């Protein structure tokens, strides 16, 4: 799948994330932010455009209605961050911790999660188009009633993930692992799985498989 990567200039100025607290319309653009801590804050309708964030902590911060465009997060802790009703486009998360992060009713396009932890993350009622999850932990994550288009799940841990009311048609999960999923037969229509996964899924639906 061809994806659009973040469009970020090579020359960026250094900024602190706390600078947005002094702005009437909180926004940061064309900058690099390193080793910042911005935890337990609440800032509505932040706009981040063409920036790189490295080794930053945002635990328990409310970023509802945030707009992220052309952004790269590297080695950041975004655990329990509220991204509800957000717009996330051309964004990369690399080696990030997103334990319990919340993306309900959000729009994600051309987004990549590489080697991240999204344990207990919620995406219910979100729209995901051209989103890659690469070697990412998605245990107990919630994708209830999502709209998927062009989704890749490459070597992910999907154990106990919830895909109720979300179609996996055309999505290949054969390289990923799970012991159990919350999913309906309708959601699995057209999903690509390995032979061993097919046996697991049949067993989860109450069918007894005999040799």
From TrEMBL:
Task: Please give one Pfam family short name.
Answer: Pentapeptide
Origin species: Metasolibacillus meyeri
Could you identify this protein by its name? Pentapeptide repeat-containing protein
């Amino acid at each position: 799948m061809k994806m659009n990567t973040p469009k970020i200039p090579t020359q960026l100025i250094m900024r602190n994330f706390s600078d947005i607290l002094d702005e009437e319309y909180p926004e940061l653009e064309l900058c690099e932010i390193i080793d910042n801590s911005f935890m337990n804050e609440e800032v509505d309708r932040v706009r981040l455009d063409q920036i790189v964030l490295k080794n930053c902590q945002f635990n328990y911060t409310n970023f509802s209605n945030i707009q992220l465009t052309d952004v790269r997060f590297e080695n950041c802790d975004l655990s329990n961050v509220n991204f509800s009703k957000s717009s996330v486009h051309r964004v990369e998360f690399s080696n990030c911790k997103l334990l319990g992060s919340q993306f309900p009713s959000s729009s994600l396009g051309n987004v990549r999660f590489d080697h991240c932890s999204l344990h207990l993350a919620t995406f219910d009622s979100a729209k995901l188009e051209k989103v890659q999850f690469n070697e990412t932990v998605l245990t107990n994550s919630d994708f209830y009633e999502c709209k998927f288009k062009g989704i890749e799940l490459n070597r992910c841990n999907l154990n106990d993930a919830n895909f109720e009311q979300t179609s996996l048609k055309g999505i290949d999960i054969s390289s990923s692992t799970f012991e159990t999923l919350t999913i309906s037969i309708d959601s699995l229509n057209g999903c690509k799985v390995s032979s061993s996964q097919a046996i697991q899924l049949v067993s989860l639906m109450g069918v007894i498989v005999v040799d």
